[in-house]
Amino acid sequence: MDVVELLPRLHLLRFPVGQAYLWRDGDDLTLIDAGPAGSGARIGAPAGSVGRVRRVVLTHFHEDHVGGAGELAALTGAEVVAHVLEAPVVRGEVPGPPPVFEEWERPLHADAVRRLPRGGFERPARVTEVSDGDVLDFGSGARVVHAPGHTDGSIGLRLPRHVVLFTGDAVAAPPVDGGVTPGVFNTDRDRAVTSFGRLAGLDTETACFGHGDPVTAGAGQSLRASARARPADG
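^ thats the sequence. predicted structure below, dont judge the formating
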């Protein structure tokens, strides 16, 4: 796991597949996503040196984002938070719907699966359920933004006072062209594109994605430019 400071209160945690983010309010830490299975201890050790993990907010149920959540909750007592539509999947009560792949996405998905740890992962015993517009007690008030399409209950998190946006996999930053796009492996591409447009319309300086390098200046302009271009590029 690589750790990169993006802002004085914000660190990027990069895993072999995907990434998570750690936000600090004094000694209280909030984790946005939790990496794949086995990540809990790796996150908990460095986090414990600077504060206590109070909550883990999951942007959606995919394994590379929730795999470490149950382990981390057991280690730290952190509250696990997810959208009301994702929570039953996160708890393991129901299966999550599979993606509807574009043909070109299939080899990318197969490669990602090969890089994930094999076997299951520890499920959190309790998940606090949230909905669009709810405000969470970190980052001077973090607002939940429902962004369906990647999964039905995908969410973004907006910190208005700090002009920071966490998008989960509703937005990605592919390494090829340095731009930003809707994420891949969606359950409903049309809804994903609509959600991308909604997130692009927010006032954002720093945008943090589930995959790809964050944009740390002028992120809103980058998102809106990409959203405007989408009808032209199909």
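The mean pLDDT is 93.
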